[in-house]
Structures are given as structure tokens and as C-alpha cells.
Amino acid sequence: MKRYIQYIKPYKLYFILGPLLMLTEVGGEIVLPKLMAGMIDQGVLGELGSAFIVRRALLMLMCIAIQVTGGVLGHYFSVNAAVNFSSDIRKAVFDKIQTFSFGNIDRFSTGSLVTRLTNDVTQVMNITRMALIMAVRAPGMLVGGIIMACLINPRLASIMLVMLPLLAVIIYLIMRTAFPRFDNMQRRLDDLNAATQENITNVRVIKSFVRRAFQEQKFERASQELRDASFGALRVVVCVMPVMTMIMNIAVIWVLWRGGHIIAAGNMQVGSLSAIVQYTTQILSSLMMVSMMIIGSTRAVTSLRRISEVLATEPDLKDSDAAHPEKLVTDGKVEFKNVSFKYYPERKENVLDRISFVAEAGQTLGIIGVTGSGKSSLVQLIPRLYDATEGEVLVDGVNVKDYSISNLREGVGMVLQKNVLFSGSIRDNLRWGDEDATDEEIRAAADMAQADGFVSSFTDGYDMELGQGGVNVSGGQKQRLCIARALLKRPKILILDDSTSAVDTATETKIRNMLVTALCDSTKIIIAQRISSVIEADKIIVLHDGRVVGEGTHEQLLKTNGEYRDIYYSQNDREEKEVS
């Protein structure tokens, strides 16, 4: 719990006032039965008459007014404390996730992280609110009710002392049974969120492959597993209220039966018995509150543990040990020295194996190879989306681990293989490259990426709202917008990961020519499936099974490298092959 003290401190006044003001409500609950007993015994059945009844009624109304005021304010401050506390935790979890490497995210899974940010934080908020309201109210009613009942008639009060251990045992058994079931329920909720996210995100693919029935079955399985887990957990909860209500009613009947005999013997008045019945109900009701709070805590503890797992996770990539945290990328020279990489430490085979090459500042480096050869994995090591398992990746002669992550990534512009746009206007999306970019700079970057033409044709132009993921533009348009976004960053190193695969060759040629002229001082690293995309590069690297099997210009590789020739001839007609 020490981890969460920092989120309580800003709202400590709310955390204090909420429970304290609930004491006024507890005071009213405790005093009212005693006042009612006096009204019955001395006013209704006694000799003090109607004047006493009126005075006692006014006193009770005043007590109720104070009780209601305290209760409303207590709830108000408790709710404020719980909502603000949970909101800060949610922000802390979100901020921590932003520091995660791709490897950290892979280990948690996206669906699980979404559940922890939403459902788990909500569970914590609910139990915090409940605890602030009940923490004083339930014990106060329990202790106050027992004291008042003992003052009126100790013999009848002893009935509660018999019931309390029985209720305590029931609460313990419920908590012990419910805890693992709620843990399982949250895991099944993770799976359902993952299935939901996958279905909604990829709905176009599902429709195009007519896989609706298959995905519905997959979702149904996840939903069924969550339903079964929820039933398993909630079966325990649904038994609580009936069992405790039965015990409370048995206690009330017992009090009435023994109290009737005491009244018949002339040792107690009717009003006093009425008060003891109310105190009995209050005592057992307070225990019911405690039991419900404990059950809620059981689920909240599971959620807190899952939240703590995120907050306690150390990012795989951090720059606390960086030798040159203030250094910026100034030239853009990239060098790999005997680099090997694998996504998981326990995996035997490397994705990349002993990679070495140099891309001088301002050069264009092409990377080509068959699918699965490790091209994307290689370039992701440059901005430290992953870290090399062995060897060194150098930028401007400095190991990338010796830069601060923000300074390193500030110098690298990257258009990923999967083009991602966000909901909002086209202009807002492009300003991810430079949030202070003027409209002229935005238009210039879009023009270089061959995007200004189609954007200007839209009714709203650069103010057109994009759907989530950019669903209302084509694949080629999305690629060009992502390139424009990277160009606005004016990076010293620009990485294009197969980012022109959806545009026609004429447009690709224009983009390629633009890169040579507009970014002549920047190092360009182009991953491509088509040799035509890298044919004019200063240097081309051929990858196969995570290894460099060729390096040189197009002409050199065509003469000396069989792998490159196979790719080249497979993309050209037989007539060109014969001429060659």
C-alpha cells in the first residue's frame, strides 16, 4: 500500500473529512432509538403526555437534520476522494505504459493493459468510496449499538455477542473462497477485451475473408469463459445477503421472545425493547456492511495487485545509465557492430545474427530480403524500440544506449510497416511530426510526400476528420500522410519500412526523388520488397534468415550476389533476364 500513499496525499482533506462527517450520521443512528424509547415509555405510555412527545419529536427532527447533513457531506467528500484517487492511479498506469518497450507490452498483452486501465481502476475506485463511507459508519454503529443495548438491558445485549462470532466465521469463509475466483474472473475479462479489440480493429479483414461466423464463435468462447468465471465468483456473493439476513432475523426474534418475557415480568418497558430491537438490527446491519466491504475488497485486492504489476514493472529500455544523456543526433551516421537480437531471452535462435554495416551520414541505405528475413526488426533497434541482445548499434559513433531515449528518437523519423493514423483532423495528425508546424510547413511536407493533391481535393482539406486508424482514407493515402508526418520532424535519420508498398510506381519515384533533394543531409534507410524502391540507393543490404548475405550497390549485387539476383529477376520479365 505504500505505493499508493502518493496518490492519497493531494486529497488527504477529502480522505479525512469524508469519514469524520459520517460520524454525525452514525451519531444520529445511535441516538434516535434511545429518543424513540423515551417517547414511548414516558410520553405515550407514561404520564408526561403530548407536550413531552412534541418536544421529543422536535429533538428527533433536529437530530435527523444533523444526521442527513453530515451524511450528504460525508458521501460528497468520500466520492471526491475516491474519484480523484483512482483518476491519478489511472494516469500513473497510463504514463507507465508509455515508458514500456514493445517487449513489455507483448508480455502483458494489449487486452490485459486495457482491462487494468479501465475495469481494475474502477474496482479500486468503488472499494475506496465504499471504505471511506463504511470505515467509520460500520464500526461506529457496531460499537455504539452494543454499548447502548448493554446500557438498556445487558441480558438482551448478550444475544448479539453470541451472533457476532458466527457472522465473523461466515465472513472469513466467504473471503477465502471468493479471492481466487475474482482473480480468475479478471483474467477472463482480459481475454474478452483482447478478443473484442481484435474484432473491432480488424473488422474490414474479417468481412473481406467472410470470417464473421468464426470470429463470433471465438468471441462466444471468451464470453462464455468470462460468464462461467463470473458465476463462480458471484455464487459466493449471492449467498451472503440471504444468510446474514436470516441470522439477523433469528437474532431479532430471539430478542423479542426474551424481551417479551422480561416485559411481562415488569423488568423492562416496551420502548426499551423497541430500542434494543433497533440496536440489534443496526449491529447486524453494520456487520453486513463489513461483509460486503470485505467481499468488494477481495475483488479490489486482485485489481490492486494487477495495477501494481504494471507500476512495478521496470521498462526493458531505460536511459538512467546513459553516458551522454544530453547528446543530440547531429549527423545521422548509423553503424551496426556484430549485432544479434532475439525478442525473448529464453528463445534459442536469434532473429538477427551478427549484423555489421555502416550507413554514412546523408547516404541512402536500402534493405531488401524475403519476408521474415528480419528487415523490420533490424531498423527497430536504431530508435531503441528494442535493444540489441548482443553487439552495438551506434548513431554518430555513440552507442544508442548512451543517448537519452527522447533525444535519440527526436533525431529519428520512422514510418512503420503498419501505418497508424489517429482520430482527429489531417492537420492534427501531421503535427505529430512537429506540433508547432505552420500551415505552410504542413502543406510543404504533404507536397513532398505526394499527399497535398488528394488532401486538397477533400471538402474540408486539412481539416477533414479521420476515423480511428484513418479508416476513411485509402492505404496509399495513409502511407503518404505517414511519410509527410515523418518529414515534418526533419529527422537526421529517416526510416521508411516498406512505406510505399501501397502507392503506384510513378508516385513512389516522385517520393524517392524528393528524399534525395529535400533531405540530402539526412540518412535515409529504406526497407522495400521491390528492388525498384532501392535501386538508386548508395548501398543496399541483402538479408536472409537474419543475416547479411550481400552488401553493395545495385550493379555490384547484381553481379556478385545470387540472392539479390533471384529477387531482381523474379520481379522482372524473362526478356530482361535474357538481355542481362
Walkthrough of the structure:
The chain is an alpha/beta fold. It has 19 helices and 12 strands. The strands form 3 sheets. A 6-stranded mixed beta sheet has the order 6-9-10-3-11-12. It has a 4-stranded antiparallel beta sheet with strand order 2-1-4-5, with no helix packed on it. Strands 7-8 form a two-stranded antiparallel ribbon. Helix 5 runs antiparallel to helix 6 and helix 5 (110-152) runs antiparallel to helix 9. The protein is elongated, with a radius of gyration of 35 Å. It starts with a helix and ends with a helix. The model has no long low-confidence stretch (mean pLDDT 84).
Beginning-to-end CA distance, first to last residue = 73 Å
Rg calc: 35 Å
Mean pLDDT: 84
Helix fraction? 55-70%
Structural class, judged by helices and strands? alpha/beta
Number of DSSP helical runs? 19
Structure summary, number of beta strands = 12
Beta fraction = 5-15%
In the predicted model, the low-confidence regions spanning at least 5 consecutive residues are none
- Global shape: elongated
